[in-house]
Specification:
The structure is a single chain. This protein has about 425 residues and is mainly β. Among the domains are: about 5-85, no CATH class; about 90-185, Phage tail protein beta-alpha-beta fold (3-Layer(bab) Sandwich), CATH 3.55.50; about 370-433, no CATH class. About 15% of the residues lie in helices and about 40% in strands. The chain is built from 4 helices and 26 strands. The chain has helices at about 110-125, 155-165, 270-280, 350-365, and strands at about 5-10, 15-20, 25-30, 35-40, 55, 65-75, 80-85, 105-110, 135, 145-150, 170-175, 180-185, 205, 215-220, 230, 240-245, 255-260, 285-295, 305-310, 315-330, 335-340, 375-385, 395-400, 405, 410-415, 415-430. Strand 25 (about 410-415) and strand 26 (about 415-430) form a beta hairpin. Helix 1 packs antiparallel against helix 2. The longest helix is centred in the C-terminal third of the chain and has 17 residues, at about 350-365. The termini are far apart. The model is unreliable at about 345-370 (pLDDT under 50). InterPro entries: Gp28/Gp37-like_dom.
């Protein structure tokens, strides 16, 4: 592989110039979410690197992005740093707004791919459109699930659906037609178990003995992992509808989490199961290999999203898994390709961030929709009394002053008042919806 050239365009996709002299370039491709890039150039050009300008590497529509950060460090590094994201990032600026007069956008027993295309069409094409965005056509892949959403970040919902199904999503760029193209994609099975099938995909094995792996880093993490979910639907007290997923696990292998699914209608057990399965997927332990490989086979014999085989003799490890991320690094002394094989490592911060983001998104977009209330407790206390005046029995999520989600005993006094009791005094916030 040769060093990549960076072609730069303005927001209307008019060509501005080509960058082939840079100190370093890192481009990260992700299968289920948007990737990111960063490059360093010796002479800054405010026009070329303006916020919102677009880039393509080597005229490759799959390796493109939007600039969102520039820094001109004349004093220390004497260079400019440019950062941005792959084009799927554009969907992080759209929320999943439900149809007029409805509380949620609901899909019943619908293929995952159909759900993804419908959400993008409704929230970034038909309404509040990204003008240059065009959609591919669903092939109805990913299995059928029951799913509902309300004022969530569109790119986050797409990522969640992709994680459940193994599908990927991307936006490519075509300067000739001045359009973006959104599509759902499926990886190719190149594992050692593959019998070549209909696609005729030749198996690919990463292993030091084959000379295609230079060094590797293996990470196992069960930080924040949960195995058993209590999924609670509608009702109050002993009459509340609750199903349990993973109830067969015992002892220290049983790690419980409560999932508030009060928004799901009573009697919809399938919807409760799908909600619980999706949440447990987000809480699962992760096994991840990151490694540097030879570049000659990249995008010829394997690519992002493919299912390949990894063999590590030192760890006595042999497994088939999906390539979920690839980091491309271009520097004067060479090129490095570093794929991530398996699940991306998830930390407690990631879990808290996703939970908090759901809270913030619902609160800031609730005008004209479902009522919400945020209570701020400035004085540390064992018991918080919250007068929310919502006229209902709301779900409640609590964070401490550092933004960490905590658990308390929630007691609904009536439809307008709730008490929250803790084992220790602290201050923070309660989000009710």
């Amino acid at each position: 592989m040769d060093l990549a050239k960076i072609n730069v365009f303005d927001k209307e996709m008019n060509f501005l110039g080509k960058v082939d002299r840079y100190k370093s370039l890192i481009y990260v491709r992700k299968w289920q979410s948007y990737g990111n890039f960063e490059f360093h150039v010796p002479k800054p050009d405010p026009t070329l690197y303006a916020d919102g300008n677009l880039i393509i590497l080597d005229e490759d529509p799959e390796r493109c992005g939007v600039i969102r950060y520039s820094e001109d460090d004349e004093y220390y590094a004497k260079e400019a740093t440019i950062k941005g994201f792959s084009l799927l990032y554009l969907l992080s600026d759209r929320l999943t707004v439900p149809p007029a007069g409805e509380g949620y956008r609901v899909f019943n027993s619908t293929p995952v791919e159909d759900i993804i295309y419908a959400l993008v069409k409704e929230n970034a094409v038909d309404k509040r459109p990204i003008e240059r965005l065009r959609l591919g056509e669903s092939q109805h892949r990913g299995g059928s699930i029951t799913f509902q959403t309300r004022y969530k970040v569109l790119s986050d919902e797409i990522e969640s659906l992709c994680r459940q199904s193994g599908l990927g999503a991307r936006i490519t760029m075509n300067p000739d037609t001045q359009t973006f193209h959104f599509e759902v994609v499926e990886g190719v099975d190149r594992s050692d178990d593959n019998d070549l099938g209909d696609l005729g995909a030749e198996p690919y094995i990463f292993a030091k003995k084959f000379g295609n792996v230079r060094k590797r880093n293996y990470t196992h993490s069960s930080v924040g992992a949960k195995t058993t979910a209590y999924v609670a639907g509608q009702g109050e007290g002993e009459n509340r509808e609750i199903i349990i997923l993973g109830d067969d696990l015992t002892d220290v292998d049983r790690r419980e989490v409560f999932i508030d699914a009060r928004d799901i209608e009573q009697g919809e057990s399938t919807a409760l199961e799908d909600r619980g399965a999706a949440k447990l997927k987000a809480y699962q332990a992760t096994d991840s290999f990151e490694f540097e490989v030879i570049t000659r086979d990249y995008r010829k014999k394997w690519d992002l999203g493919d299912i390949t085989t990894f063999h590590d003799k030192d760890l006595d490890y042999l497994d088939n898994n999906q390539i979920v991320e690839i980091q491309e690094t271009y520097e004067a002394d060479g090129i490095k390709i570093e794929p991530t094989f398996g699940d991306p490592v998830k930390t407690i911060t990631d879990v808290v961030k996703s939970t908090s983001e759901e809270i913030k998104t619902e609160s800031r977009t609730s005008v004209g929709g479902d009522k919400t209330h945020t209570h701020t407790q400035t004085t540390p206390a064992l018991k918080w009394t919250v007068q929310h005046n919502l006229g209902k029995f709301p779900s409640c999520t609590i964070t401490d002053s550092a933004g960490t989600v905590v658990i308390g005993e929630v007691r609904h006094i009536d439809k307008n008042t709730v008490e929250i009791v803790f084992s220790a005094q602290f201050a923070g916030k309660a989000f009710l919806n």
